[in-house]
Design goal:
Strand content: 25-35%
Shape: elongated
Structural class: alpha+beta
Low-confidence stretches: 51-62, 263-267
Strand order of the largest sheet: 1-2-3-4
Order of helices and strands: HHHEEEEEEEEEEEEEEE
Largest sheet: 4 strands, antiparallel
Distance between the termini: 152 Å
Mean pLDDT: 78
Radius of gyration: 44 Å
Number of strands: 15
């Protein structure tokens, strides 16, 4: 029995030693392997990274915000600024003074022309008259030399409108189409040569370099081509005798306006 017991003891000791050595060999591997806890501890690092990115993002946009504020800086008005006309609800397309300086006409894309009395500009509510242009708007406007007539050219209808009686309620006295200017009109001139007749002068726009003279009833009196590639703007002298047109070429052509011998058949040259 004793040898048998000795064998059993040796076997048990061998098994115990094997288990001990196996446990010691697996212990470093388990130590290197992170437990479940650290994965949850690493999660708070993400919000920290986001905060860092947001902070950097704010510094990145700081120059743009400063530039936007710089653009909004209000520049002081000129010391000689007299008045600011308000009341239109759209861009202003044209403005002109009457010859005596009493009225200021302003045309806008809001389909109106406002006649403001200059003497009332210093008051809180300036006095003005409104001319409505249904379904259209004026691209340019001008007064006649005597200040009794206001002329305007419409955009869509391509027509000339003549108004009078500004002190009471402006009335449309004449209107006629000007389709001969397919690209619109750069300038409108009301030429009063004498008391017997008035000529409406239209200066073509862009590559339409025609100057056309009309009677107030829409009769085309004469047409002249300046042959200057493009026309920009036309003006007339105060004595109604000359018309000058600014154009693309480095020269200005001056046209002479002549009074006809027969007042019933006006014309221009």
């Amino acid at each position: 029995m004793e040898p048998f017991l000795a064998v059993i003891v040796v076997v048990l000791l061998g098994v115990a030693g094997y288990l001990y050595l196996s446990r010691q060999s697996t212990a470093p591997t388990d130590a290197k392997r992170p437990p479940n806890g650290p994965t949850e501890v690493a999660k708070p690092s993400k919000p920290v990274a986001k905060k860092t990115v947001k902070h950097h993002h704010a510094h990145h946009h700081a120059p743009h915000s400063d530039a936007a504020k710089a653009k909004q800086v209000h520049l002081p008005d000129h010391a000689l600024l007299s008045h600011v006309l308000k009341g239109h609800t759209g861009p202003i397309t044209s403005a002109c003074f009457s010859p005596n300086g009493r009225f200021i006409a302003t045309a806008s894309t809001d389909r109106t022309i406002r006649l403001t009395l200059r003497e009332s500009l210093g008051s809180k509510n300036p006095t003005f008259k409104t001319i409505n242009i249904p379904y259209d708007y004026a691209t340019t406007c001008t007064f006649s030399c005597d200040g009794k007539t206001l002329g305007a050219v419409t955009a869509d209808g391509q027509a000339v409108h003549l108004y009078s009686k500004f002190k009471a309620k402006p009335e449309l006295t004449h209107t006629f189409p000007i389709h001969e200017h397919p690209q619109g009109v750069a300038s409108l001139l009301l030429n009063d040569v004498g008391d017997d007749w008035t000529t409406v002068v239209t200066v073509g726009k862009d590559d339409d370099t025609d100057i056309r003279c009309w009677a107030v009833d829409g009769t085309l009196l004469q047409s002249t081509n300046l042959n200057q590639l493009q026309a920009y703007h036309g003006v007339q002298s105060k004595d109604n005798r000359f018309i000058a047109v600014a154009s693309f070429t480095p020269e200005v052509k001056v046209q002479y306006m002549s009074k006809p011998r027969n007042p019933e058949t006006p014309g221009c040259a």
